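During the reporting period, our protein records have gained a structure token line. A sample record is set out beneath this paragraph:
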Amino acid sequence: MKGISNSILTSIIAAVFLYIPISEICIQVINYILSKKISPMLLPKLELSSGIPKESATFVIIPTILKSREKVQELIRKLEVYSLANKSQNIYFALLGDCAASENLVEDYDFEVERTGLSEIKKLNEKYSIEEEVERKRFPKFNFLYRRRTWNASEKCYLGWERKRGLIYEFNQFLNDGIDKFKINTISKEMVRKY
């Protein structure tokens, strides 16, 4: 009886150790066969060798929860780096700040976050401003948006509606429909309508 239980235990241990190499070999064999039987297809892509046209303008966004001046400064530096790596026209950059969950509708650090965001974005826009863009009244290259807290009954606290997903949704809603639910927004509705 003892010998039978030892052989069953040995078989289980051997099966566990052999499962990974055998499954890896099977996957490799299947991938090899499929690569020989199915020819590769070209994926559709955009041809943007002459730059991004106005009708395809896009935003590079960083959606995040902001609680301190240092975090705002760090993320705005990242926006600057992203813009230096993507110098095409019609690419805009935005820090989408969401408020942290709180028992209060407004926290003291909110004002610091707002002031820092506005001043840092202003500095960036001044540093990289192009007179043509100012004359044409286009979107500023860099933008800062910060949301209000709303009461969440299920979590019993104030926070941004639907967190990051809601933040991106409300940003798209603003760009598409002009519905501005942000407490701070450096993009004017007039600019959105013109674009």
Notes: The chain has a mean pLDDT of 83. The chain has two domains: 1-41, 54-194. The helical segments are 2-37, 69-85, 108-127, 131-136, 163-177, 189-194.
